Amino acid sequence: MFGSKSKRVLTIPLAIVAIFALALSGLSVGPALADGPVLFGDAGDARPALVRPNEAQVIRSRYVFVNTGILFGDSGKSLGKKELPQVTLNLFSNATYTGVVTNAYMDRWASYWIGRLKGVANGYFYLTVADGVFIAHIASPRGVYEVSWAGDGLYKVIQIDQSKFVDHDPSATFAESGKILPVGSLGPTADSGSFIDIMVAYTDDARAAEGSTAAMKSRIALAVAETNRSYANSGVLTRLRLVHVEEYAYVETGSLNTDLTRFRTSGDGFFDTIHSLRNTYGADLLGLIVENGGAYCGLASTIMATSTTAFQVTDRGCATGYYSFGHEFGHLQGARHDTYVDPTNTPYAYGHGYVHPQTNDVNKRWRTIMAYNDRCSSWGYNCTRLQYWSNPHYIYLGDVMGVVGTSEDHRALTNTAYTMANFRSSVIDGNFTSNFIDTDDDWSGIAGAWALSSGAYYRTTGLASLFSSAAPTGNYGDLTFEVKMKRTGTCTSCANHISIRGAPYPLDGSKRWNREYKFAYNNAGQYSIWEVNGASVVALKNWTASASIVVNNWNTLKVVAVGSSLKLYINGALVWSGTDTSLLAGKVGLGMYRDAAAGTLYIDWAKLTNTPTADFNPNEAVTPGVELVGGDDMRGP
Q1: How far apart are the first and last CA of the chain?
Q2: By CB atoms within 10 Å of each CB, which of 16, 66, 447, 487 scores lowest?
């Protein structure tokens, strides 16, 4: 907020009194019955080895086991909304909801399930799993809840009192606002503003309090998902794109102002590498998560940042659920607080948060993401912070969510997106994860017919005696490209492949790409690597028998390419490492060669990350195989 977390407030919210009254009376604040598989199992008397006391914002809590198996299929693949249409969110005995899944997806960081609460107006939920660790946020007019890692296989369910997050530090000072650039003024190669790339650092104290590195990544992934959903809710056109996370061993001061100054300053010995990492990953805006924010939730360097002031810090305890993570980035993007606490009109008179006018209707006591609780407190009650930015053209429970010319934060975020997105150029094209759940994830066929299969796989039946291939949009240089694939059919020697640094057109008579590094395997248990450059097709590695290949079943191929260095992994084993200087950047793709007999190539998922030199390990040992004689890039010997 500029500042935001108070852990101590004297007023008791009327909504909380009502909730406790319901609890004492035995009535349910959620639907009495719910549909779908049950997500949480009661832990009984089980407790983690380290039990942390509840913070002031926690109304009540309990420990549970999380049945993450209902979110994933037998193969470990995250389920789509068709396979998992509903889930029972049994938070407390009197707070059980049916979550209707409206969106399920996966990116390089986590798997996500987002939806609405059945029968609860404007109720919603997020379920996130990163590296096997679960986190959830559930919100409705009846209560705000979070489920997070507690350690030793247990999770902690809490109900949150948002009024405990008191907002600003009146002593904080802020850098001068920046200036926006006209859209298109940087030329055709500039970033469009559709995505603002962010990098998030966190302290070792924050990670320790979260419970693990995976739990910290889950928290960050949830924070980004919440922020992007709030943009979508409010007509904001840009989205945040997480490009990197980094842990720092740092002694926190308990002063957000001190920690933020050290975070953005170079050469002072605290976070010095953050600046080179920013350049490596092309991060426009940077955030730091700390465990001890003192009395506040967050602090931004300025309202509407420049490249040098595009830094913010957020307290871990209110990064999600109270939306402080998105709130602080909102400041950097030009958004201000509501006019009751912040009448300043720089950089935009219309760029303020919004508080619903005074009302006796407890369901209408709300405020938008940039608004404080102060106005509501002056009326003798507290207001829930909603997952919306002020926008007078949007309606919530029958009321507008802003005032034209005064509270239109959505305009500020959209108008500054082009400027923010060009603080650093995106690193070629962005990372992607294609899960092929109900969508082709912007892949398209280059040769042959490609389609979704059962809403969960991308497949082709190929072309007789020809290559078939598919590719996503985008061009990439240094990368890690990983694909899980399976081939059926009788041609055990026929090649299945992934390609990098390619250029498909013009295809030759065999539907082979014009240029590519091609990494192939077959169901005879063999692999090979090829460089295709026009009419030249050269084996960088002849067909080689490898015990790492699982014949007639799923195999995961991963290629790591940094500069001239190339590596191929099959099912986690490094099977080949070599160098070649011919191809430096281009498209990625995948495909198969088919003979006259029928066969099908199935793709479970594909993911790509841009890989800087610092992430490349030249000293890994190669798993040996038996090199063979014969064959070509179509089929093995």
Answers
A1: 65
A2: 16
Longest dimension (CA), the chain: 84
Amino acid at 163: S
Judge contact between 313 and 259, C-beta under 8 A: yes
Prediction pTM value: 0.70
Bridge partners of residue 257, in order along the sequence? none
CA–CA gap between residue 155 and residue 64 (Å, rounded): 5
Which of 429, 480, 441 minimizes the C-alpha distance to 195?
429
Which residues, at least 6 apart from 535, have a Cβ–Cβ distance to it below 8 Å? 508
Tell me how far the alpha carbon of residue 549 is from its chain's centroid: 31
Comparing CA positions, the residue from 556, 553, 560, 569 lying closest to residue 588 is 560
What 3 state SS string does 60-102 have? Answer: EEEEEEECHHHHECCCCCECCCCCCCEEEEEEECCEEEEEEEE
> Are the C-beta atoms of residues 58 and 7 closer than 8 Å to each other?
no
Cα dihedral: 332, 334, 337, 338 (round 10)? -160
- Assigned token pair, 80: 């789509």
Identified catalytic residue from 146, 210, 328, 408: 328
328 counts as catalytic? yes
3-state helix, strand, coil in the chain (%, to 5): 15, 40, 45
Q: What is the DSSP letter of 234?
A: H
Give the pLDDT means over successive 10-residue stretches in the chain (637 positions): 39 31 33 74 90 83 95 81 93 95 85 94 94 94 91 94 76 85 86 91 96 95 96 94 92 95 94 92 95 92 96 94 94 96 94 96 93 94 94 95 97 96 81 87 94 90 97 85 97 98 95 97 98 96 98 97 86 92 87 96 92 53 94 97
